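Quick start: read one record
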Amino acid sequence: MQKKLTITVDEEVYKGLHKTIGPRKISKFVEGLVRPHVVRPNMELAYSRMSKDKKREAEALDWAEMIFKDIAHEKR
């Protein structure tokens, strides 16, 4: 569901939005800018999907094992 929001911006910003983005595209543009800052992804779902990617998991395991071997051989 969409909700209407009224915001106030400087006249120069308003004209720039109309000129650059277009009068019927401003809402979508602003939403695209704001969304990543206010809508958090479902991390559990994202991690669950990642864990089902067998190739990615194998590459991650190989990487982790190489790092652990490097750390084990570092001088202290």
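The CA atoms of residues 29 and 72 lie 50 Å apart.
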